[in-house]
Amino acid sequence: MQNFDFYNPTHIIFGKDRLASINENIPVNATVLITYGGGSAKRSGLIDKIKMVLGNRKIYEFGGIEPNPKYETIVKAVEVVKNEQVDFLLAVGGGSVIDGTKFIAAASKFDGDSREILKGGYAPLPVEEVVPFGTVLTLPATGSEMNPTAVISYEHAKYFFSSPLLFPKFSVVDPTITFTLPQKQVANGVVDAFIHVTEQYLTFPVDGRVQDRMAEGILQTLIEIGGTSVSEPENYDARANHVWSATMALNGLIGCGVPQDWSTHFIGHELTAMFGIDHGQTLAIILPSLLAVRREQKRAKLLQYAERVWHIDTGSEDEKIDLAIQKTRGFFESLGVKTHLSEYGIGADKIPAIVEQLKAHGMTAISETGDLTLEISQKILESSI
Q1: Is it the case that residue 64 has pLDDT exceeding 90?
Q2: What tens digit of pLDDT does each residue of 298-323 get?
Q3: Which long-range contacts does 118-123 make (Cβ < 8 Å, 24+ apart)?
């Protein structure tokens, strides 16, 4: 097992009817900016319920944070924070709203060009403090409610940054708040959580037995309840397991001491930036093809995945791997998520432009072993048609 540091200070408030807990976790004299997305949180009455819980605190609102949040949108909220002396942020939404709020938290304490924050990656932020923030999760997918990472769109590209300063102080995770989500968003969320796990699990063995078993447990849970979470939106048990799986998939725990890939995400980001395909859909397109192309580099873990997650215990090694990849694709498609570029109207003629974007963004030697070149990315994309 590789050396690791693990730190996660986020207070999770899980279960039904937990909004009242917000009052106990925000200073009584705070000036609060509530951030949210396209308006469903407002129309559903959720924002009004939260404002009631906040009581006499001074409250401002900033709505309109879009999926794949744009720098041009969220930088406007930074001005609100500075002008109104906001000292606590409350993100009400899914990963996009929470990611946008992480940017707002950092940029509001930065006097320079806030675009510098976007290109930070894992480098330290150019600030020593951020505006503290909490979240009310409305979409289970990204795990942003319990991690310190964000992805922001700017000029047809997606940029990520991460810092221990950007852990939410608390996150209210109430599965019932997600009941009104459209089926497509629920399905995308299942896929997103599933592939967050595989990015940390389907690499190469380092004898991280606890991490492997936890990863396999999350994958098996998503397989068991994913379809029900999509088709029965008010099935509390299914949705609660979906929500908690998504949180656990990317809160840092299963990634401790093990190699991580993230190539599926890096390639998928370009599809979202260029063609507007939903993030979860891009992952479902790329992963099966990536596993097929990289089967030799991932052979040992693919066999483990086949046997432990899909319970494939007959056939040759190659037959087991083939069937595990087929079952993975089949699982995504059973949720209603298409897994081929052609099903989104993208043909082979677009692949050179995608590869050029990968090159422009420095994605020339990615994967857990750093040997996934542009040529291999092109092969993966060609296999995804």
Answers
A1: yes
A2: 999 999 999 999 999 999 999 999 99
A3: 118/71, 118/152, 118/154, 118/159, 118/161, 119/159, 119/161, 120/161, 120/162, 120/163, 121/160, 121/161, 121/162, 122/162, 123/161
Q: Kindly state the tokens that stand for 187.
A: 């399905």
| CA–CA separation, 268 and 144 (whole Å) | 18
Instruction: Report the number of secondary-structure helices (H) and strands (E) in the chain.
Output: 15, 8
Calpha distance 17→24 (Å, rounded): 14
Average pLDDT in the chain: 96
Average pLDDT, stretch 322-342?
A: 98
Residue 220: CB atoms within 10 Å: 15
| Helices 374-383 and 279-293: angle between axes, nearest 10 degrees | 110
Q: How confident is the model at residue 224 (pLDDT cuts 50, 70, 90)?
A: very high
pTM of the model: 0.95
H helices present in 232-278, as ranges: 236-249, 263-275
The number of residues in the chain equals: 385
According to the model, what pLDDT value does residue 359 have? 96
Radius of gyration of the chain from its Cα atoms, rounded to whole angstroms: 20
Residue 36's beta-bridge partner residues? Answer: 92
**Quick one: pLDDT at residue 1?**
95
Helix, coil or strand: residue 363: coil
